[in-house]
Amino acid sequence: MSNFSKILKTFLLLSLVILISVTLIRCNRFDSTEIEGVEDAVLTDAPYLPAPITRTHPTKVIVNLETQEVVKRLADGVEYVFWTFGGSVPGKFIRVREGDLIEFHLHNDPTSKMPHNIDLHAVTGPGGGAASSFTAPGHSSTFSFKALNPGLFMYHCATAPVGMHIANGMYGLILVEPKEGLPKVDKEYYIMQSEFYTEGNYGAPGLQPFSQVKAVDENPPYVVFNGSVGSLVGDNAITANVGETVRLYIGNGGPNLVSSFHVIGEIFNKVYGEGGTNVNQNNVQTTLIPAGGSSIVEFKCEVPGTFILVDHSIFRAFNKGALGMLKVSGEVQTDIYSGKQKDEVYLGNGNPSDAMLKANLLNGAPDPNKKMSREELLAFGKTVFSSTCQACHQADGKGLPNVFPPLAQSDYLLKNKERAIATVIKGLQGEVIVNGTKYNNVMPPQVLDDVQVAAVLTYVRNSFGNKTDIVTPQEVAKVRGK
Ligand SMILES: [Cu+2]
Questions:
Q1: 220, 223, 227, 157: which is closest to 190 by C-alpha?
Q2: Which of 96, 317, 352, 359 is least crowded, fewest Cβ atoms below 10 Å from its Cβ?
Q3: Distance of CA 459 from the midpoint of ligand 1 (Å)
Q4: How far away, in angstroms, is 169 Cα from ligand 1 center?
Q5: What are residue 94's phi and psi, to 5 degrees?
Q6: How far is the CA of 244 from the centre of ligand 1 (A)?
Q7: What's the topology of domain 352-480?
Q8: What is the CATH number of domain 38-177?
């Protein structure tokens, strides 16, 4: 045999060996489409997820989920009859792998009043499984589907009236992990936003019935995360440590509203938009989650503190319940975030604009051109005092030792009217002696119009044991130099 053909033979043999081993390795890792084995799905309640999948092949996954109608807390002092997948809202988190064959058993608790079913957005098939899973109370239905498409999918009840079944809490998330898995992160949490349409307004106590009228109007008294007001607040907050990466699997059960999901003080380093498998954005402030949709966001926790989760349709957060917390513990990182470094007095120019004075009038302040009686000045002055001066000089006008001088029986206040007016409109700093006691502090100029100054000075000069004449807006204007 010639040298050349020897080399060629060795080369061909080697190539064959490499080809075969590469094929074998690939098959073993991800490309095996053969279903191997059976396992029972681990299901979890929010905000927790089952552990990431380490399998490198598809399997048959048995899911057992029970629909239950339960009375639970919606807010402090407020209860609601929730219809649930697994006893809480949102429903159990289901985690499977691309290519898995899911054998789904839907059980309807015998005490249920309603039939229920399930439409999983991860299903390729009519109704997402709805018709095949229609289950009367005290029955079980079984159907199977292949998880062809990876992604984060919502599931919900689709029994008529569909809106009402969803509005009462029948939704959850199923994650179909891509066959190559998801990048490892330190913390994973499950959050689902939704609305509740109660007969009573937000906070109205007692067991609240469902309001069809409000649901059709898309005007919910409650917009919440994980089924109730405060589900992720205080001791229920989700947690992480400085340096850790957090991944949130967020769903929006609706039934009506779109969520503008935002974490105050964090930036989403990665967003898997609409719960798909691609990171389609980096460095996002607020991600939009459609009703019946989802999103996956990831961010690194660089600094410690409490980070507030909100629907940035912000009245929902502060007035309807869509507010949660992430508590990050660890060392303060002053190079990234300093915290408050200073608080000092800022004097500004102290004179409210004409437009501002007009706005004050609109907000119910007296007209500066109208002559006010002593009684009117006193009454209005009391409200100005409690909103403006009381924080420092105290409700009883006695001030605080060494810091805030007293207004009660203050010789400084009572002796010289012009000086008292000037103190309020221009502020006061440096040494001042009140009733023989030295104070050396700063009172910033008070941004008040002439009527407010006249009224508050009339009030303090005739309260706390003080008694003297009134102060008029004209006198204030004179000191202001108008
Ligand atoms: Cu239902």
A1: 227
A2: 359
A3: 63
A4: 9
A5: -115, 130
A6: 38
A7: Cytochrome Bc1 Complex; Chain D, domain 2 (1.10.760)
A8: 2.60.40.420
